[in-house]
## 1
Amino acid sequence: MPAVSLSELSPSYDVVIVGGALSGAATATLLMRRDPGIRVLIVEKVETLGRRVGEATVEVSGNFLGRVLGLTQYLNEKHLCKQGLRFWFANEKVEQLDQASEIGPRYLARIPSYQIDRAALDEEVLRRACEGGAAVLRPATVAEIRLAAGGMQEMEVKQGGERRQVAARWIVDASGVAALLARKEGWWRPNTAHPTASAWARWKGVKDWDGRELMEKFPEWASCHHGTRGTATNHVIGDGWWSWWIPLKGGDMSVGVVFDQRLVDFPSGGGSVGERLKSFLMRHPVARELLEKAEYVPEDVHWRKNLPYFSTTFAGDGFALVGDAAAFMDPFYSPGMDWIAFTATRAADTIARQRAGEQVDPVVSKHNADLALCHSRWFDALYRDKYHYIGEYDLLDLAFRLDLSLYYWGVVQAVFDPKADGWKTAPFTHPAAGAFASLMAFYNRRFARIGARRRRLGLTGRANDRRRHLIPGFTLNRKEIWRLIPLLGEWAKLELTEGWRTWGPEPEPTGKPASEAA
């Protein structure tokens, strides 16, 4: 069905989706598959969707885009295949790129994921939803929403200077960080336990990690691994902060920094956000090498303070929140599109079950309980106070391998197993997941205590030079779970050699200002 005008709108629909980017368009697609006769209206506020953060997929979201939405051929033609995650560290001894400590894969990735130009991807998913039968109104906005449990949700749709009343049995909020329903209904909450902020931009002229210039300048560094560094999501990391380096089809590079405001003072005062971002990054020797000839695009520079938030309600009898409209945790490990995949799947399932005649109250109750549990455990397991040790090569190396192991043999395994119904079981909500979530939260908390102690004693970054851990890679073979045993042994050794000093009533990490330099 082609795009419609305001005058062509029906007075009522089965579902109105607010937001036509990935989370909204994917929800529409899943709904129309479950119920081909469903009447769906997507209201998108802009004429052309623009680039945004959330350009790196991981194995779960790569599977969702490729196998669930059927985009594999499109992704291979229009975007870049991603080659894992890579991390770079420095201290006062590091003067150039090849002296920085490095964590990353030795070989190419075994399971597909992608580096995405979100403007192109979002438009493609929206186009396919439109072809599948959804009506699309753009540019337009939704206002004056009146929720009615079990009844028709009423709203005012605006386009230009005109307004029209529309009703729908369900409204899906896919409005992103605007979080339309959560803010309107008073469900929106900032995550004050995780006070991060971010600045980012698109760049031109960033050096090629795998190009001849760096290969000739650092031959041993270039030849020590067998994959490609440039199409990985590279992370240049300092004390209390990290930056992403994501290549986009056509040569642009998305580069942004995220920092814990308790630990880092981002440059303030004179200069644009772009100038301050470049100044901040150029203090790290790895970033300085890559950005030597690069320029940011002045029209594509962004700043956001206090990144994380969540909604206390995710669904009701007549509405559902998906993607960033429901919550945002942290961009580290690129969880945003995983969250889109699970919330869109659950929203479509909840709506489809109500339309099939099921009692909606228990379905909605489980929807809310599962996503609330997922969000809280996900945050505690991976992000709470992580920035207290994120700049420590040895601590993050061990945490990353533990995190990755449990991610593969927990979340990824379930998603790729058709018998596991993994898309309906959001991460950390399976009955057996509590123990693993607690384990992850515990070692994350322990590493944060150790990292905070090092900072107090002036010992930060002591392992950040001239070390390299190149990981052979993971598969979905459950027999490989034995690889957790030596990792737990490394953790035990860390506790016995250093961690024991924080076993007592030492205060939990509260942080103090750290240097903006690496």
## 2
Amino acid sequence: MTIDISQFHGVFFEESFEGLEVMESELLELDASNPDTESINNIFRAAHSIKGGSGSFGFNDITNFTHVLETLLDEVRSDKHKLNQDEVNLLLSTVDCLREMLTAARDGTDIDQAQVKSIHDELERALGNDSVTEAEAEEDNVVDDNDSEAIASALEWHVHFAPHLHLFQTGNDPLRMFRELEELGTLTSAANLSKLPPFNKYDAEECYLSWDLVLVTEANEEQIKEVFEWVEDDCELSIEQANQQEASNVVNVVADKAAPISEDADASKVEPIVDKKKAADKKAGANNESTSIRVNISKVDALINMVGELVITQSMLSQFGEEFDIKNIEKLNEGLKQLERNTRELQENVMQIRMLPISFSFNRFPRLVHDLSNKLGKKIELKLSGEATELDKTVMEKIGDPLVHLVRNSIDHGIEMPDERLAAGKPETGTLNLNAYHEGGNIVIEIVDDGAGLNRDRIFQKAVDRGLIKADEDLSDDKVNELIFSAGFSTAEQVSDVSGRGVGMDVVKRNIHDLGGVVEVKSEAGKGSTFTIRLPLTLAILDGQLIRVGTQTYIIPLISIIESLQTNIENTKSITGDVELYRLRDDYIPVVRLHSIFNIACDSAKLNDGLLVVAEAEGQKIGLFVDDLLAQQQVVIKSLETNYKKVEGMSGATILGDGTVAMILDISSLIRLYREQAEYKTSSAMNNQAA
């Protein structure tokens, strides 16, 4: 029986990426002058696991690369090597390189060999090994006179390796170990076949062979033993150094072009394995992104308990179907109410399965702040709070890029240089806070810095220069601050690779809006800025207000509604082209007649006979004229674009309790439709007057 180990690739990659996160987190906290022993051990264990796993699955490039990293870390933890800050930064670069290698192996794409070689050589230099790299040695493939000194220093080691019968069942393969030994020097191998049983008694899952290996290498015994550490409890192993005369004979053989075992070698020798599955693994790995999610066992238990309750309720209700009696109507109603409770709790429990702590998003920022602050010459302390706050996995994946934009802008534009902060009476180290918490049915994420704040005058002047506002407009500070979310807007005096091109903040706002959320900014000159993001906890369920227009039912997201009111005709004004405005306190709000937008019949066209729902999106308020307000309820969102096609003014649909379909309104899209309709009416009216 053969086992397809590619089925375990997903788990390997998931655990490897988690290991890289541990390494990165520990390195960012590491004090190079006085490294914490436990931190070094954690980093070493993560690297060791990645090396072992990649070797088991045949990802040899990753194994070879991680071996050098592991050797350096081993010397650090045994106090043979003292780290400095440059080497800590090198280790961080190594983590990045490993992440890219693992991603390439997972997706079946090519590894950037130039980058790998560059980092590999730097690690070798950190180890004090300036000799020819393994890749260069393989290219030469011939021992010439210049290598005589290196050959002379090589030692011959005799290794007897006798695996226990169950070795294969542990997932280990001797041939992978032999490949690793070949990287240490020149290897010859003789297999002992004496314990092979007759063919009819042969078990393919048991290992009957043992090997006598001869390794000529400059490596020491510990390095050789390290190759077998994964199987040390599953084999008989002896490693002995040959006497000098034997070593001399071997050196002569090596000098006479001794090469790794080839196809022409004796049949009793073990051939190095050619990775025949490489192409297949590459193809199978393409687009193999992780779709798994880790769930706390308590959530699974709650789900199982709720399913049990549903089974009991279903059993109780089925009895009424068999012998229904009007006298049991009260028990039937009680059973239906119980079914409703169970269904609601089941829905909540299922949604909890998809909820993950926002720490999964926050974990990327310590490295981002570390790298950018070093690049810009700033001192910044990052503080994280509310990491346990949970939100839907889909929301978390899509909020990552907007958060990165906001954090980068706070570092680049917000927090000042150390000398500027000292001159302003501030500590030279700036503070950047990331905070998350629940508020109602939403999650709130705050990015707070104690920097210089937004420059109101510069923002105002830039907006005037770009024609976004008029020079004589009187805008509040909040309105001026909102201008930074305009497309192409930037106050940076020079363009850098961090920011200043005028792209990003408008994308941030659009992406957050696409998630059904809003972003706000508050700033005080000299004291800092606060960006606040409000998002729904999940994209699958929506808190909505049901409205009626004629015979049609629509749903407005509650997060978009400001207030609802009975209209007063005296507060209504019409301007050119029959465009209507409603005066709400000190503000004029355009009136959007939904029956006109969607071309459907309504109960009444008079404003004082209906209701006005004031909603907001992208900083714009509109009044939706409706016939009636119905109930508020949670609805399950169904995508129109996936199941039908994109429809302007609609963000999705849902099925109501009576089986009818109700459309979910997209306020931003309605604002655009209204503007197009208003421009058309105004243009038509002006043309008529001209005629």
